[in-house]
Structure formats: structure tokens, C-alpha cells
Specification:
The complex is a heterodimer of chains A (113) and B (110). Chain A is mainly β and 113 residues long. Chain A has strands at residues 5-7, 10-13, 19-24, 31-38, 42-50, 53-57, 64-68, 74-78, 87-94, 103-104, 108-112. Classes of the chains: A mainly beta (113), B mainly beta (110).
Chain lengths: 113, 110
């Protein structure tokens, strides 16, 4: 079984731009979660999508949005980028029910200049 | 923030020694999971303990859970250089949402 695939692996953007990150979950997984990881804040939960619906949301501004397609693939969009958005963005997929073990992709490293 | 905290933030030990890291969390949980992250990569699931369990073993890993203190510990016995990584605890709350701890950076010196 293929693992979780995130594209692209690296991105460099400038302030004010927008960016879209993509995540392909493990086949059969219906839940996709997104996390932001920074040295200062650790791993912060952004949101979770399950069967194309946002099921959970963390405490991030509306500039961060996402969606999930019928094949469970998910995209995350960040509009009006700020310097503080520089981070490793991790996607994780799971079956969606308890115990909800998360399977992570390798991440997208976003640098905002 | 409902994020958990881990202690210590960094730990350096000799190969063959045991490593213990602790995690505290803030919300009620259904289960608590430990993950490992090699530098700049995704996290890998290590072990899970349910809220009605007190101790779990898996190979060289031993995890304990004290729900009254909202804390957990991970013990890695007979550590190896390949165990060098960051370790995170993650509590799954009743809303099916994860809150990760801040992580412990473990260095095992050969």
C-alpha cells in the first residue's frame, strides 16, 4: 500500500501570495488532517476532513482553508501569506474512527520571504 | 491552547541506556499515542494506550498512562543510535481531535 503523499516537498513564496498544498491519503482512508509544525509552537492542528466535510478545526485564522475531494485527496490553501506562516505542513490520513492512528506524509516545507 | 507538554525538551544518553520521557495533557482523552519524528520528516506511530489502560508494552517500548494526573510516560529500553529522533505524545479527545505535545528531542550517542 502506498503511503501518504504530499506535494510539493518544498515551496518558496513571498508575503502576500497564496499557496496550495496537496495531500493524497492512504487508499481506503477517509480522514485527512493537516498540521503546522514550527520550532517555537510545535505541532499545531489545523483541520480535519472526513468524507469531504470539515469535521474538526483548530485555532487558525480564516486565511487557512482546506477541502477534500470525493477520492479523499485533500488540499490546503493559505492566502495572503505572512512571514510567520513559514513552517513544515504535515498531512496525516486515517480511517477516521477510534483509535484514529495517524499516518503522516513527509510534509511540505514552506518558506515565506 | 489544549496542546500537551513534554518533559524533558531534550535528552542525551549513551547507547544501551534507557530513555524516559514524560507527557502531560489538558483534556479528557479516549486514547493517547506516541509518535516518532526523524529530522524534518513526517511522524511515525509507535504505540497507543487507551484511557482504561495503565501500561502497555511493545518491543523495547513501555508506555504508562495516569488519567487522574493527565500524564503519560514513554520508556525506551536499551537505546540505539537509530532511536535518535523527536518523540511526541498525542491525546485523542472525545471530539476525535488530536492534540500533540511539544516533543522531546532524544539523542543517543554511540
Amino acid at each position: 500500500k502506498a503511503g501518504v503523499t504530499q506535494t510539493p516537498r518544498y515551496l518558496i513564496k513571498t508575503r502576500g501570495q497564496q499557496v496550495t498544498l496537496s495531500c493524497s491519503p492512504i487508499s481506503g482512508h477517509r480522514s485527512v488532517s493537516w498540521y503546522q509544525q514550527t520550532p517555537g509552537q510545535g505541532l499545531q492542528f489545523l483541520f480535519e476532513y472526513f468524507s469531504e466535510t470539515q469535521r474538526n478545526k483548530g485555532n487558525f485564522p480564516g486565511r487557512f482553508s482546506g477541502r477534500q475531494f470525493s477520492n479523499s485527496r485533500s488540499e490546503m490553501n493559505v492566502s495572503t501569506l505572512e512571514l510567520g506562516d513559514s513552517a513544515l505542513y504535515l498531512c496525516a490520513s486515517s480511517h477516521g474512527g477510534e483509535p484514529n492512528i495517524q499516518y503522516f506524509g513527509a510534509g511540505t516545507r514552506l518558506s515565506v520571504l | 491552547s489544549q496542546q500537551g507538554e513534554e518533559d524533558p525538551q531534550a535528552l542525551s544518553i549513551q547507547e544501551g541506556e534507557n530513555a524516559t520521557m514524560n507527557c502531560s495533557y489538558k483534556t479528557s482523552i479516549n486514547n493517547l499515542q506516541w509518535y516518532r519524528q526523524n529530522s524534518g520528516r513526517g511522524l511515525v506511530h509507535l504505540i497507543l494506550i487507551r484511557s482504561n489502560e495503565r501500561e502497555k508494552h511493545s518491543g523495547r517500548l513501555r508506555v504508562t498512562l495516569d488519567t487522574s494526573k493527565k500524564s503519560s510516560s514513554l520508556l525506551i529500553t536499551a537505546s540505539r543510535a537509530a532511536d535518535t529522533a523527536s518523540y511526541f505524545c498525542a491525546g485523542l479527545n472525545t471530539g476525535n481531535q488530536f492534540y500533540f505535545g511539544t516533543g522531546t528531542s532524544l539523542t543517543v550517542i554511540p
